[in-house]
Amino acid sequence: QVQLVESGGGLAQPGGSLRLSCAASGFTFSSYAMSWARQAPGKGLEWVSGIYSDGSDTYYADSVKGRFTISRDNAKSTLYLQMNSLKPEDTALYYCAKGPHCSSWLLCNYWGQGTQVTVSS
Cα–Cα–Cα angle for 6, 70, 41, nearest 5°? Predict the structure, then answer.
């Protein structure tokens, strides 16, 4: 069965960095585009970034463009999100999902359990 397991979340200071990972299993990871999305407390789901199956193209929400970098290692079936210049408004539960633009729960069938990112001084 498809499994997506995020890790790497935690507490960071404003201006700091974190790197999220998402370990995938149960499907041919290298054949599928993947996404990161997030949900802040009391808010709806926000798509953050997407990447083509071969990593040849990447996409970002305006809110993270220039600060976050999505990447993947198909040999390890792992998706990454490097987050730099973190802001308090980046505080959210971060999810990886199978699909290119998972901007709602219904658009993509498979989601991880999420990893919490908190940005605070």
Answer: 55
Q: In angstroms, rounded to a whole number, what is the distance separating the alpha carbons of residues 10 and 73?
A: 22
CB atoms within 10 A of CB 37: 28
Provide the 3-class DSSP secondary structure of residue 29.
helix
Tens-level pLDDT at each residue, the chain (121 residues): 999 999 999 999 999 999 999 999 999 999 999 999 999 999 999 999 999 999 999 999 999 999 999 999 999 999 999 999 999 999 999 999 999 888 888 889 999 999 999 999 9
β 115-119/10-12 pair status: parallel
